[in-house]
């Protein structure tokens, strides 16, 4: 049985999601403040977190930032759930490592569908990582270790968010192949973010800043104008 943590300062929303997710066989724990959410996640390691933004003690952004910074909690799927529906709020949540973003008011059926999609993807990624041989990808001075969600450049570990790592891993596994923004959104975020293609550009920009000697003249991640991105090994 999958454990879902719901963090929201509105107890009626917690009870609504407990009821609807519980009917589908999920174990649900509800918390009303951000600090308790961090402590619980570190101890219980829930399979997925539904996280509001406006929380007492620690807001949802700070909770997400804290969890993504710790190896033991960095890969737990997080769905942001908030009344803040502006594009800039969605972009910020996704940049910090959220896997999905739902605005209030919401349909419980939609939340359930998103939870199922996230957990299926988590299982698929786990299976795929177990099947990857070799366990390391070495391209020039870059080493990618999928099992550890770790990338090393010239002996130095690169500080990547889970989504940045998944982008790098996917591109590096397919050198020379061009991925459109829509395909990257579907493959990395799990479903069609048709109106959120800027998310890919933002993540690629941050990834280049961490990976490339000169982000303006990238050696690894190349832009294919009008199409998308591809990975190329340097000679």
UniProtKB/TrEMBL annotation:
<dbReference type="GO" id="GO:0000156">
    <property type="term" value="F:phosphorelay response regulator activity"/>
</dbReference>
<comment type="function">
    <text>May play the central regulatory role in sporulation. It may be an element of the effector pathway responsible for the activation of sporulation genes in response to nutritional stress. Spo0A may act in concert with spo0H (a sigma factor) to control the expression of some genes that are critical to the sporulation process.</text>
</comment>
<dbReference type="GO" id="GO:0006355">
    <property type="term" value="P:regulation of DNA-templated transcription"/>
</dbReference>
<feature type="domain" description="Response regulatory">
    <location>
        <begin position="3"/>
        <end position="119"/>
    </location>
</feature>
<dbReference type="InterPro" id="IPR001789">
    <property type="entry name" value="Sig_transdc_resp-reg_receiver"/>
</dbReference>
<dbReference type="InterPro" id="IPR036388">
    <property type="entry name" value="WH-like_DNA-bd_sf"/>
</dbReference>
<keyword id="KW-0805">Transcription regulation</keyword>
<keyword id="KW-0597">Phosphoprotein</keyword>
<dbReference type="InterPro" id="IPR001867">
    <property type="entry name" value="OmpR/PhoB-type_DNA-bd"/>
</dbReference>
<keyword id="KW-0902">Two-component regulatory system</keyword>
<dbReference type="InterPro" id="IPR039420">
    <property type="entry name" value="WalR-like"/>
</dbReference>
<dbReference type="Pfam" id="PF00072">
    <property type="entry name" value="Response_reg"/>
</dbReference>
<keyword id="KW-0238">DNA-binding</keyword>
<protein>
    <recommendedName>
        <fullName>Stage 0 sporulation protein A homolog</fullName>
    </recommendedName>
</protein>
<keyword id="KW-0804">Transcription</keyword>
<feature type="DNA-binding region" description="OmpR/PhoB-type">
    <location>
        <begin position="134"/>
        <end position="233"/>
    </location>
</feature>
<dbReference type="Pfam" id="PF00486">
    <property type="entry name" value="Trans_reg_C"/>
</dbReference>
<dbReference type="GO" id="GO:0005829">
    <property type="term" value="C:cytosol"/>
</dbReference>
<dbReference type="GO" id="GO:0000976">
    <property type="term" value="F:transcription cis-regulatory region binding"/>
</dbReference>
<feature type="domain" description="OmpR/PhoB-type">
    <location>
        <begin position="134"/>
        <end position="233"/>
    </location>
</feature>
<dbReference type="GO" id="GO:0032993">
    <property type="term" value="C:protein-DNA complex"/>
</dbReference>
<dbReference type="InterPro" id="IPR011006">
    <property type="entry name" value="CheY-like_superfamily"/>
</dbReference>
<feature type="modified residue" description="4-aspartylphosphate">
    <location>
        <position position="52"/>
    </location>
</feature>
<dbReference type="InterPro" id="IPR016032">
    <property type="entry name" value="Sig_transdc_resp-reg_C-effctor"/>
</dbReference>
